[in-house]
Write a structure and sequence with these properties.
Elements lengths: L7 E7 L5 E6 L2 H13 L6 H10 L4 E8 L5 H12 L24 H10 L7 H10 L7 H12 L11 H12 L5 H27 L1
Antiparallel strand pairs: 1-2, 1-3
Helix pairs in contact: 7-8
Length: about 210
Amino acid sequence: MTNYNKSGIYWIRNFTTGKYYVGSAVNISIRFTSHRSRLNRNVHGNPYLQSAWNKYGEKTFEFKILECCEKEKLIEREQYWIDQTRCYEKEIGYNVRKVAESNFGIEWSIETKNRMAKSQTGRKHSIETRAKMSVSQTGRIVTDKMKLIQSITHKGNTYRLGKTSSEESKIKNRLSHLGKKASEETKAKMSIARQKYLEKKQNGTQENINT
């Protein structure tokens, strides 16, 4: 029985058309599982392989190890098989690149980009990844326009733009975010703030009437 828990080069071959996809992996078993999962969910990053999978079905494809090698040799050996098979030619294979492990120069279609984005939906980043993302944002300059857009996006209340909240409302909002109950002292402050707000509002109304 073949042991797929190895590093090496593999192919995914279509029995019907004879076309194939060549790839490499540190653990071929895990990579095969990943390929099948993405293809069956129609979110695979390779549009040619995905299209063929949808058309001919899973049973038409063979997953096979071409060569096992050390991890340090993966790129070198994958390049060898890509050159030998010419799997990047549309008449022969499904690969989208000529150079192993390099996406440089590839222009993805909108459909493919959407499929790749969909495959990331619901994915949770590790603590290490989140830390790296945070570091990558360090020193970023946020313009006033960007701040406005972020504010609208996060709050979702465009109708509040240009309006001033009362002191009572501000206190309530702060407390709602903290999840704490108002103390007697805070309640007293809210009462006073509300009273001042109503008096100010009443005075403004009275001035409008006199005018």
